[in-house]
Specification:
The protein is of the alpha/beta class. It has 2 domains: 175 residues, Rossmann fold (3-Layer(aba) Sandwich); 198 residues, Dehydroquinate synthase-like - alpha domain (Dehydroquinate synthase-like, alpha domain), CATH 1.20.1090. Helix content is 47%, strand content 10%. The chain has a 6-stranded parallel beta sheet, with helices on both faces. The protein has a two-stranded antiparallel ribbon with strand order 6-7. A hairpin with a 4-residue loop joins β6 and β7. α5 runs antiparallel to α6, α5 runs parallel beside α7 and α12 crosses α13. It starts with 14 loop residues before the first strand and ends in a 7-residue tail after the last helix. 52% of the residues are buried.
């Protein structure tokens, strides 16, 4: 056997300050990153929350003038990013504190990246070597403060932004978009409602699972993905049942970060379909991932048998194999009160062909274990829409 299958380039992420109370180090992190005038980017729902107001007060008390931009929707679009860029330029901010869930983190990273560039946002879409167009010296640093345990955007080099004109989600990428520091304080996730805890947790599960299934030689990512899945199996149900259990919140926050580290290896059809579905219907990304997962695993069955046996053994599932993993996910989904199919959450068959076409173009599609083609991908989506009798209540 030649060496070609074992040729790879591996990258690992930013420094993380982890633990209860770690948000109190925010001003120190700004100084370490040479940020003197931070712009705090968050969503409108969090902007007046105690956690954000306390962070602002502590930062100002430390002598750092701080602005706030909170015009961030649950699926941030280019228009919102443009407004944030204008605010950053107008007030001469030299860095961003991205504070919130995945949408706020993605928006914050995009704003700090784009604020002092001369090209428009879509010139940096994650296609080919578009990222090389950026003026590296103009990129401003980001400090990420996640308040959910799902996306792992605090250690990612990508922002998912909605193109309002085409109603599609597009990925903006640059290696320097990765936050220079992440503050992972599980106490910030304590107030997250049970349904959102479940959806974000399933997002982390999807990241670990698809990264593990993705082809390619990356044993470090595989190991992190399996360990992330093991933690999610134990702690996600606990975090949903008892949101004040700090240990569960901490374990899920760690698992979410692990998922984002792992998926530098690649993702797959779950995300390729979830991106256009989310753009068209405005449904939470983690909820879409949770519903799609069993259908995609079944679709990829012929290519992932050995991996699923290994994973099932690691998770201590009976009768290790693809069906064991599917059965675990379906049971977990039901335990978390997540629906079995897309129709239940209001998605119809009207846009099936549009969604399939967008999925095949999505940057996550090429690393699905089985090549995505129009006809079988359409069947896959219809199965997820209508539901499969084997996996229904």
């Amino acid at each position: 056997m030649g060496l070609m299958p074992f040729t790879a380039i591996w990258n690992y992420p930013t420094a993380v300050t982890f633990g209860p109370g770690s948000v109190k180090t925010l001003a120190e992190a700004c100084r370490a990153a040479s940020i003197a005038r931070p712009l705090l980017v968050t969503d409108s729902g969090l902007a007046q929350s105690a956690m954000v107001l306390e962070a602002i007060e502590r930062t100002r008390a430390a002598g750092l003038p701080i602005g706030v931009f909170s015009d961030v929707a649950s699926n941030p679009g280019a228009t919102s990013i443009g407004k944030g860029v204008q605010r950053m330029r107008a007030e001469s901010h030299d860095g961003v504190i991205a504070f919130g869930g995945g949408s706020a983190l993605d928006a914050g990273k995009a704003i700090s990246f784009l604020a002092y560039q001369t090209r428009p946002i879509w010139d940096f879409e994650d296609v080919g070597s578009n990222w090389r167009r950026a003026d590296v010296e103009a990129i401003r640093p980001t400090i990420a403060v996640p308040t959910t345990a799902g996306t792992g955007s605090e250690v990612g080099r990508v922002s998912v932004i909605t193109d309002e004109e085409t109603q599609t989600k597009r990925l903006i990428f640059h290696p320097r978009m990765m936050p220079v520091a992440a503050i992972a304080d599980p106490e910030l996730t304590v107030g997250l409602p049970a349904a959102l805890t479940a959806a974000t947790g399933m997002d982390a599960l999807a990241h670990c699972l698809e990264a593990y299934c993705a082809p390619g030689f990356h044993p470090m990512a595989d190991g992190i993905a399996i360990e992330g899945l093991r933690r999610i199996k134990v702690w996600l149900p606990v975090a949903v049942r008892d949101g004040h259990r700090i240990e569960a919140r901490a374990q899920m926050m760690a698992a979410a970060t692990m998922g984002a580290v792992a998926f530098q290896k690649g993702l797959g059809a779950v995300h390729a379909l979830a991106h256009p579905l989310g753009a068209l219907y405005g449904v939470h990304h983690g909820l879409l991932n949770a519903i799609l997962m069993p259908y995609v695993l079944d679709f990829n069955r012929s290519a992932i048998g050995d991996k699923m046996r290994t994973l099932a053994i690691s998770l201590e599932l009976a009768n290790p194999g693809v069906d064991a993993v599917i059965d675990w996910i379906v049971a977990l989904r039901r335990d978390l009160a997540i629906p079995d199919d897309l129709h239940t959450i209001g998605i119809d068959e009207q846009n099936v062909d549009t969604i399939v076409a967008a999925a095949l173009r999505d940057p996550t599609a090429p690393t699905n274990p089985i090549t995505l083609e129009t006809a079988p991908t359409r069947v896959l989506l219809l199965n997820a829409l209508r539901g499969d009798g084997r996996w229904r209540r």
